[in-house]
């Protein structure tokens, strides 16, 4: 099985996240793509909506998209949400699985600072999806212990997707101002945000 993993705070999930998952699934022939909301993201310090709300928004967002699935794997595990731990757990749960870790191209410069980044590259194919205005590269000097062949595959595994202006920070700002998020956020997600009173000015 070829399994894609797209993690993040999903605060909130938006059209860009869905577009990333679909583009990676199509480009690499993935059987499934898990969208994995983090319970305690170590790199994120913004005001997060409750984890259960972020999971529910992802669940609603992927409805009707074949091959996309919301996953609780990080919510049901105690402690900080480290990507390497999630990938290791998925390997245990699905012996023989081929893992594809999906991230936005703008996250490439941060990847070397992640917990056991070299191990992530060892156990999963990292799929960088292009983001408008970003042209980040995987620099060999950032991964001195990673074989050159693996680094070359990182560039080959890149995926292009149609431009999508949605961004979680921008969506939150619109919602705080009492403005509609429009097409950036699926209708069912917008309704959940409204019903739960998320992202309002306090």
Question: Could you characterize what this model shows?
Answer:
- The protein has 7 helices and 5 strands, in the order βαβαβαβαβααα.
- The mean pLDDT is 90.
- It has 202 residues and is of the alpha/beta class.
- The protein has helices at residues 15-28, 51-62, 83-93, 117-123, 148-156, 168-176, 187-196, and strands at residues 2-8, 32-37, 68-70, 98-104, 124-129.
* Share of residues in helices: 25-40%
Count of DSSP H/I helices: 7
Number of domain modules: 1
Major beta-sheet overview: 5 strands, parallel
**Spatial order of strands in the largest sheet:** 3-2-1-4-5
Overall pLDDT score: 90
CATH superfamily placement: HUPs
Q: Which sequence of SSEs, written as H and E, runs from N to C?
A: EHEHEHEHEHHH
First CA to last CA: what distance? 46 Å
Overall geometry comes to globular
Backbone CA Rg: 17 Å
**What is the percentage of strand-forming residues?**
5-15%
Layout of strands and helices, then pairs:
Elements: E1 2-8, H1 15-28, E2 32-37, H2 51-62, E3 68-70, H3 83-93, E4 98-104, H4 117-123, E5 124-129, H5 148-156, H6 168-176, H7 187-196
Parallel strand pairs: 1-2, 1-4, 2-3, 4-5
